[in-house]
Amino acid sequence: MLLAALLTALAAPLAQAQGRPVPAAQPQGERLGAIAVTPPQMADPTRYWEVYEEAYDLAASTGIDLPGEVAFTWSTMEQHGWFGGIRYLDEGAVKVIGYARKHNWPLVITLQPFETLQSRIPDDLTDHRLDTPELLARWRAFIDAVYELTKDVPAAAVVLGNEFDVRFAVEQVQGRDRWEELDRLIQATRTHVRSKPGWAQVPFSIEATFDGLTNPATRKQLLRLNRHADLIGVSYYPLKDDRVLEPEIFESHLEQLFALYPQRRFDFYQFGYPSSERIGGSLEKQRQFVEQAFAEWDAHSDRIRLLTFTWLYDIDSGLADQLRKNVLGELNPTLAFQAFVGSLGLHGRNVGEPKPAFVELQQQLTTRGWGRKPAAGEQ
């Protein structure tokens, strides 16, 4: 606690010098903190699941409330039955559900008909409108399967899509406007999710990028779609033209979101800052980003419910390039994308390589009481 007091005292003059009032560290309250868990690099593939579980244990040691999203891909589920996928990694969602039970975590469950630029709709339905009876019937059956797989684990949110606005913005530029179809798909999804006993009271949302939510070309469409959402779902990385912005930009970006969605609460399902110097990042800037995030969260704890720090371990260049091809195709063929996704981790690629950002995250969580178990007799 002495260290926490010292860090707070040192941070105050800096923030005051920048002209900002310094909010005191607020108790956790109803806020939810998450880490999107990626495994470390491992020399022995036969220990994969053992090492992966250790990564979840490391995330749990910080006191977080839940892991990152567990994404279920429509086309994959239809093709392989009960097999789902963790976002970006083709691993078994069943394993993640087991980790959630172990750590008494709820889950953010993402239903994916789209993933950034890519369609995850089954091949035989790709030419259908999004609101046809046949497509909606199959979509509801997919939701039914996900519910059966996860119904014994509490849900923190049920989310449609992963940065789907990227695909629809590109289609819009190409002269194909499907926002109205998507609106009806979202309405149908919300209705079906609400029909499930275990999800009836769980927040429903859609996940769009910060750029999509704020860009004049798409923000009106997303304002309309978010009428069906209980929370505003955001994927947030402060990037522009393949360069990372300064950590303090988060303050003004929040102001933009709050102005567009007054009185609404936000879930950040992806939230990260790359440490690669190739694109203007650094280990120190990444640490400052975590510090800035908690300062803004304290100041706006009534508006931000969830921050999901993305992600636990850095990924290697091969996986980064695979991710680029799988999610973006040839939209971003530059090395800058690899530098971005390859340096988001709070750790390096190996076990025992915490970055300053991870140490900062632990300290910020501890200072606010995350992970503290109530003593006997406490409420």
What is the element layout, followed by pairings?
Layout: H1 2-17, E1 32-36, H2 48-61, E2 66-67, E3 70-73, H3 74-80, H4 93-103, E4 107-115, E5 118-119, H5 133-150, E6 155-162, H6 165-173, H7 179-194, E7 204-209, H8 210-214, H9 219-225, E8 232-236, E9 239-240, E10 243-244, H10 249-260, E11 266-271, H11 283-299, E12 304-310, H12 317-328, H13 335-341, H14 356-367
Parallel strand pairs: 1-2, 1-12, 3-4, 4-6, 6-7, 7-8, 8-11, 11-12
Antiparallel strand pairs: 4-5, 9-10
Q: Can you give keywords for this protein?
A:
379 residues; alpha/beta; TIM Barrel; two-stranded antiparallel sheet; 14 helices; globular
Notes on the protein architecture:
The structure is a single chain. This protein is of the alpha/beta class and 379 residues long. The protein folds into two domains: 30-64 and 259-370, no CATH class; 68-230, TIM Barrel, CATH 3.20.20.80. The protein has helices at 2-17, 48-61, 74-80, 93-103, 133-150, 165-173, 179-194, 210-214, 219-225, 249-260, 283-299, 317-328, 335-341, 356-367; strands at 32-36, 66-67, 70-73, 107-115, 118-119, 155-162, 204-209, 232-236, 239-240, 243-244, 266-271, 304-310. Strands 1, 2, 3, 4, 5, 6, 7, 8, 11 and 12 form a ten-stranded mixed beta sheet that branches. The chain has a two-stranded antiparallel sheet with strand order 9-10. β1 (32-36), α2 and β2 (66-67) form a beta-alpha-beta unit. The longest helix is centred in the middle third of the chain and has 18 residues, at 133-150. The model is unreliable at 1-19, 82-90 and 373-379 (pLDDT under 50).
